[in-house]
Structures are given as structure tokens and as C-alpha cells.
């Protein structure tokens, strides 16, 4: 009976013993990252001087992600030919060791804001390679017809972790301490490293990742397709404008609302719930015109942020808007990729998607880094409102350009 409850597409994938063990490791590490989503910003608030809290929160959140972009470029020549399993293992070990150093330094009384940012930055240095190793490993492990189901299961676990992780962390940072939450995150990566090290992988054909030459070729191809270049530009700025939200929201909870970490956990948990529900509507959205819906999502997400800028709206309203924003935001990636797939020449699709991924790696981290100075200068409420307002303008401009293009 339980087998009948599993859709047919997933049965062969879940029947693979190695894949099941990998999924267990991914699920645990995703949960750790979900908890750190709250803990990284909260510990920065606790360590930083009140006058510079916004700068340090922005630096900490950016340090947890942005160095992965530098690592992808700096270590490209050395790591491009390393087997996928070793890439995943190396990232998990580095993540576990340097995140684990955070609670140790905190317990010893040595943790300063600067040291905290450095440890976060080193921990994320190989994370882009770890992600590449993960998806390359899945491609080597499974035949072509099972890869879509496998990737869907892995991404669904990531969405689920954005719901459970912040909710758990919201409680733990209040009653246990945010530094110890990062220690738990480190243990999840140690668990993944041990699991990957003990795996006995079957012999399979090597799947070579797209190299830098292909990515450069993809950028050249995008320049010859104005519609796809416009889509990439819209996506980049959409992700960039999302970045300041990750800095301003925790400071809005502490400085404006004087609320505990549990409220921040509620915000992100309900955002994740909304994203999951929104993602489930992608099948229906595909029957709608993709370009107008994609531009409408940008406008809708910006509108969901605007109530944060007004004191007349209480916490229940902003919580509801943030959940609605998650539902709007959730399908965007699938829709934008579907547009890329529909409009790209089939023989150039891989190169164009590689170029797209390389460009988007920088968008949200740069926005997060900018969020620190913005929040320090304008305040959390104004930063959230400003992010929403500019996002609405971005989506409206895309709608106008789309209408002009169709009229021509």
C-alpha cells in the first residue's frame, strides 16, 4: 500500500540504495542550513555594537554565501577535474570544521565580530563546488530518465528545510543560544561528510561539468538573443533586490518590534510554506503566458514587502504578507528556467544555462552585502519598503517593455 502512494516517477529513484543514503545526508545538511538562516544574523546582532549592527549583519550573511563565488573562480583550475564525490566531501569537511569553530570560540570568550565573519567566509569557500559535486554525483549515479525525479526530490527537501529549520532555530536562539545553533549546523555537515566517505558508489560513466569556456560561449550566445538576455537581466536584478531583505528583516524584528528570535523564525517558516505552495502551482502556471506571469511575480513580490514600511500595519499583517510573498516568489525559478528552455536553441541550451548560473551566483550575495549599509543608513523598515518599491518598479518596467515588444 505505501508503494502505491509514491508516484511512479519516484519509485525507481527511491529504490536505489545509494541515492536513499545520499538523500538522508542532504536532508540533514539542509536542515542545518535552514537553522543557520536565522542563527547567522542573530549571532551577528549579539556580537556587534548596536550602532554598527546593520553592517555586521550584512557582512555575516554575505560571508555565509558570497565567498563561494570567489572559490568557484579561484579554484577552478585545480578542482575542475576532481571527482564529484571528493568535491562534496571537501565542502562538507570545510563547512563542518569552520562552522564548528564558531561555538568553540564563543565558549572560550574569543569570538569577535571580525573573527565571526572570517570563520563564516572560510566555511563557505568551497560551497559552490560542493553544490556542483552534488548534482554531478546524482547525474553519475542515475540514468537519464531518473535524474529529473531525483533533482525534484532533492530540491523539495531544500524547500522543506526552509520551513522546519527557521522554526527550530527561532526557538533555539532564544533558549539555547545562536552560537550553539551554528554548532548544530556544523554537525549536520560532519554527518554528510561521514556518509559520503562511507558510500560505495557503483561504476558509472563520468559526467563532465560545463567548463569556463562553455560558460563564456554561453554569454556570447545570450548577447545574440535579446529576449534571453533581457530575461537574465530581470532575474539578476530580482535576486539582487531580494538580498537586502535578509539583512533588514532580523533587524526589523529586534530594533523596530523589540521581539525575540521566535518571531524571525515564524517569518521565514511561513515564507517557506508559501514557497512550497507556490511551487506546487507551477504546473498550472505553465498553461499561462510565461513572460507576463514571470514579470507579474516580480511586481507581486515587491507589493508584498510594502506593508513593512508602514507602522499602521501590525505584525499579523506583515507575517501574512511575507507568507503571500513566498507563494509569489516560489515559482519564479521554475518559470524563468522554462522560458530559457523554450527560447534557447536546443544545441546551445547547456552553454546558456551555464552562463545564467554563473551570473546569478553574484546577484543575491551582492544584494545582501549592500543591505548592511542600507539598513544602517535608512533603518530596517525603510530598507524593506525600498526593496519592495524598487522591485515593483523593476517588474513594471519589464511589463512595459514586454507590451511594447508585442505591439511591435
**Average pLDDT:** 80
Distance between the termini: 57 Å
Q: Which assembly state applies to the chains in this document?
A: single chain
What share of the residues lie within helices? Answer: over 70%
Q: What is the count of helical runs?
A: 21
Number of strands: 0
Spatial extent as radius of gyration: 21 Å
Q: What string gives the helices and strands in order?
A: HHHHHHHHHHHHHHHHHHHHH
Sheet of most strands: none
Secondary-structure-based class equals: mainly alpha
The fraction of residues assigned to DSSP E strands is under 5%
The general outline is globular
The residue ranges in which pLDDT falls below 50 over 5 or more consecutive positions are: 203-217
Can you offer a commentary on this structure?
- With 408 residues, the chain is an all-alpha fold.
- Helix content is 81%, strand content 0%.
- It has 21 helices and no strands.
- Helix 7 runs antiparallel to helix 11.
- Mean pLDDT is 80; it is low at 203-217.
Structure, briefly:
The chain has 408 residues and is mostly helical.
Secondary structure elements and pairings:
Elements (H helix, E strand, L loop, with lengths): L1 H4 L5 H4 L2 H31 L5 H11 L3 H8 L1 H4 L4 H24 L5 H11 L3 H15 L2 H32 L2 H21 L13 H12 L2 H31 L4 H19 L2 H4 L4 H16 L9 H15 L2 H12 L5 H12 L2 H16 L1 H28 L1
Helix pairs in contact: 3-4, 3-10, 3-11, 3-13, 4-8, 4-13, 4-20, 7-8, 7-9, 7-11, 10-11, 10-14, 12-19, 13-18, 13-20, 13-21, 14-17, 16-17, 16-18, 16-21, 20-21
Amino acid at each position: 500500500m505505501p508503494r502505491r502512494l509514491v508516484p511512479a516517477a519516484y519509485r525507481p529513484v527511491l529504490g536505489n540504495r545509494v541515492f536513499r543514503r545520499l538523500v538522508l545526508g542532504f536532508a540533514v545538511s539542509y536542515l542545518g542550513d535552514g537553522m543557520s538562516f536565522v542563527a547567522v544574523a542573530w549571532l551577528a546582532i549579539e556580537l556587534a555594537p548596536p550602532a554598527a549592527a546593520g553592517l555586521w549583519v550584512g557582512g555575516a550573511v554575505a560571508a555565509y554565501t558570497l565567498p563561494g563565488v570567489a572559490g568557484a573562480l579561484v579554484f577552478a583550475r585545480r578542482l575542475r577535474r576532481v571527482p564529484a564525490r571528493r568535491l562534496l566531501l571537501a565542502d562538507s569537511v570545510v563547512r563542518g570544521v569552520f562552522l564548528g569553530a564558531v561555538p568553540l570560540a564563543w565558549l572560550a570568550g574569543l569570538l569577535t565580530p571580525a573573527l565571526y565573519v572570517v570563520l563564516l567566509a572560510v566555511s563557505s569557500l568551497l560551497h559552490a563546488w560542493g553544490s556542483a559535486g552534488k548534482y554531478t554525483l546524482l547525474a553519475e549515479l542515475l540514468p537519464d530518465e531518473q535524474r529529473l525525479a531525483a533533482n525534484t526530490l532533492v530540491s523539495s527537501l531544500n524547500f522543506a528545510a526552509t520551513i522546519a529549520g527557521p522554526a527550530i532555530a527561532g526557538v533555539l536562539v532564544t533558549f539555547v543560544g545562536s552560537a550553539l545553533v551554528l554548532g548544530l549546523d556544523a554537525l549536520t555537515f560532519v554527518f554528510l561528510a561521514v556518509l559520503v566517505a562511507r558510500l560505495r558508489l557503483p561504476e558509472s560513466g563520468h559526467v563532465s561539468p560545463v567548463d569556463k569556456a562553455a560558460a563564456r560561449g554561453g554569454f556570447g550566445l545570450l548577447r545574440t538573443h535579446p529576449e534571453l538576455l533581457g530575461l537574465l537581466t530581470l532575474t539578476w536584478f530580482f535576486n539582487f533586490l531580494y538580498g537586502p531583505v535578509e539583512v533588514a528583516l532580523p533587524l526589523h524584528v529586534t530594533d523596530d518590534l523589540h521581539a525575540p528570535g521566535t518571531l524571525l523564525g515564524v517569518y521565514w517558516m511561513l515564507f517557506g510554506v508559501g514557497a512550497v505552495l507556490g511551487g506546487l502551482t507551477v504546473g498550472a502556471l505553465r498553461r499561462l503566458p510565461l513572460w507576463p506571469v514571470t514579470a507579474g511575480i516580480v511586481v507581486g513580490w515587491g507589493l508584498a514587502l510594502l506593508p513593512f514600511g508602514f507602522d499602521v500595519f501590525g505584525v499579523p499583517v506583515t507575517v501574512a504578507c511575507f507568507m503571500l510573498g513566498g507563494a509569489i516568489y516560489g515559482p519564479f525559478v521554475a518559470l524563468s528556467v522554462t522560458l530559457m528552455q523554450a527560447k534557447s536553441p536546443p544545441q546551445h541550451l547547456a552553454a546558456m544555462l551555464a552562463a545564467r548560473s554563473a551570473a546569478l551566483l553574484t546577484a543575491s550575495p551582492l544584494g545582501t552585502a549592500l543591505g548592511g549599509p542600507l539598513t544602517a543608513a535608512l533603518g530596517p523598515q525603510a530598507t524593506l519598503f525600498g526593496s519592495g518599491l524598487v522591485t515593483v518598479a523593476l517588474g513594471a518596467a519589464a511589463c512595459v517593455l514586454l507590451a511594447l515588444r508585442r505591439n511591435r
